[in-house]
């Protein structure tokens, strides 16, 4: 069943009718995206959360293991511009097909890496998976704008990011359970092989479902803002370069890129180094480290959905973002203190608080990006936004890794807290711009004026 909403708008003065239609199958599109993006991000922390086991099995350094996580950030930075351009050209359906195909290929390659001298092969498979981020990270806001009505856009974006976070959470939780630190390397290899076969099978099924069921943008726009955006794009065919130039002169957007980049960069660093930080204080704590990662991400999933719901209801974008960022900084401080006093239950409580705000902040960044850059393309704007967090993520992982080797994990926590402090200050300095909401209000004003004229 489909719900059709029609309204009148002057449409540049010509009195044309604006036809808006809500499609129930929008939830199918969102569900399929959630599945294949989750399978990709599951493998982001697949090695780093059992860093000590992988380092021993493949006889490589901890930095080499960290690089399996950093590939997700590195490839995104170097490929996001051509990737975003391609996504704009091929449309949402083929973007989803390409993303799920790369997840499938990368997962199968890793099956052939199960031997002590197979690290290069596993790194190649990880590289294919890392490339998927180029066509995944720009999708949540774009899918929400193309398929969902205005009242659900923030919630849909949050649910799109939910799939990304769900994959990371399961990677944190299941990998240490499935891959044990056996004395014999052959037993570790057997555990890895079971894990890789399972993910490859699920990725193949996901790819088939996307090919069969995933659709491009619906014929009719689901919201007034999408209608106006389509009109604007038709009237101003400025290609790919001009939108980037406009974004590079948008001060609020540039500040957001840096504040959001620092926040998500800290999340990437925590996820990559969690195993190493935890084992400094708690021996044989691989599974506990995995559960902590699970807790951080799961709480962030709740946070993302709750914050998206709050934005849809209140439209208080800056107030919500500033509050969440401050509580994120506070959570990182509490997490550092909990690690230092070495009380495991306290560490779990601090991780709960930190995860709710640090991981939950992801959805807020996408929504602020949409407000600052409307009516620019969501894929271009979010693509550039994510360049910053991946650059900051790489820098923070490398710096934190070096600090841990030379000064211990306390120096790492100080570095991450200082990064969040700078991000919080920049968040305060941004203007409270709501371009997308303003466009929505104009539509309602025009509709109300037209209806009143007709009644008179």
TrEMBL record:
Membrane-crossing residue ranges in chain numbering: 27-45, 57-78, 90-111, 123-144, 156-175, 195-214, 253-280, 292-311, 323-341, 347-364, 384-404, 410-429
PROSITE patterns, A to Z: MFS
Any one of the GO BP annotations: heme export
Any one cellular-component term (Gene Ontology): membrane
Pfam families: MFS_1
Compartment list: Membrane
Membrane topology: Multi-pass membrane protein
Assigned keywords, A-Z: Membrane, Transmembrane, Transmembrane helix
Source organism superkingdom: Eukaryota
Record protein name field: Major facilitator superfamily (MFS) profile domain-containing protein
Species this protein is from: Cotesia glomerata (Lepidopteran parasitic wasp)
Taxonomic classification: Eukaryota, Metazoa, Ecdysozoa, Arthropoda, Hexapoda
């Amino acid at each position: 069943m489909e719900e059709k909403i029609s309204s009148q708008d002057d449409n540049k003065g010509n009195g044309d009718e604006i036809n808006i239609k809500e499609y129930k199958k929008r939830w199918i599109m969102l569900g399929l995206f959630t599945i294949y993006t989750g399978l990709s991000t599951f493998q982001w922390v697949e090695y780093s959360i059992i860093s000590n086991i992988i380092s021993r099995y493949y006889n490589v350094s901890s930095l080499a293991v960290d690089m399996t996580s950093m590939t997700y950030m590195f490839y995104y930075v170097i490929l996001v511009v051509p990737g975003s351009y391609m996504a704009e050209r091929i449309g949402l359906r083929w973007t989803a097909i390409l993303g799920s195909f790369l997840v499938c290929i990368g997962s199968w390659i890793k099956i052939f890496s199960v031997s002590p001298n197979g690290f290069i092969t596993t790194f190649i498979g990880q590289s294919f998976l890392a490339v998927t981020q180029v066509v995944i990270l720009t999708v949540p806001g774009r899918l929400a704008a193309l398929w969902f009505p205005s009242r659900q856009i923030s919630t849909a974006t949050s649910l799109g990011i939910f799939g990304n976070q769900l994959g990371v959470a399961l990677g944190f939780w299941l990998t240490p359970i499935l891959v044990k630190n056996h004395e014999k390397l052959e037993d570790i290899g057997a555990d890895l092989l079971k894990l890789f076969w399972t993910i490859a099978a699920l990725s193949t099924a996901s790819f088939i479902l996307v090919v069969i069921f995933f659709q491009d943008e619906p014929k009719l726009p689901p919201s007034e803002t999408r209608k106006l955006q389509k009109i604007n794009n038709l009237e101003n065919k400025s290609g790919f370069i001009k939108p980037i130039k406009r974004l590079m002169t948008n001060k609020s957007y540039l500040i957001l890129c840096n504040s959001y980049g620092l926040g998500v960069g800290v999340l990437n660093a925590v996820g990559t180094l969690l195993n190493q930080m935890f084992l400094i204080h708690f021996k044989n704590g691989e599974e506990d480290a995995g559960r902590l990662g699970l807790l951080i991400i799961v709480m962030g999933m709740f946070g993302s959905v709750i914050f998206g719901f709050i934005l849809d209801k209140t439209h208080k974008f800056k107030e919500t973002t500033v509050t969440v960022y401050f509580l994120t900084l506070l959570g990182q401080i509490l997490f550092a203190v909990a690690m230092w006093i070495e009380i495991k239950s306290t560490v779990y409580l601090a991780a709960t608080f930190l995860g709710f705000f640090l991981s939950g902040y992801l959805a807020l960044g996408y929504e602020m990006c949409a407000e600052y850059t409307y009516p620019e393309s969501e894929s271009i704007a979010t693509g550039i936004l994510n360049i910053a967090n991946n650059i900051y993520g790489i820098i923070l992982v490398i710096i934190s890794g070096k600090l841990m080797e030379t000064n211990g994990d306390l120096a790492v926590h100080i570095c991450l807290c200082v990064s969040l402090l700078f991000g919080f200050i920049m968040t305060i300095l941004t203007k409270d711009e709501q371009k997308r909401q303003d466009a929505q209000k104009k539509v309602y004003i025009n509709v109300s004026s037209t209806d009143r004229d007709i009644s008179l």
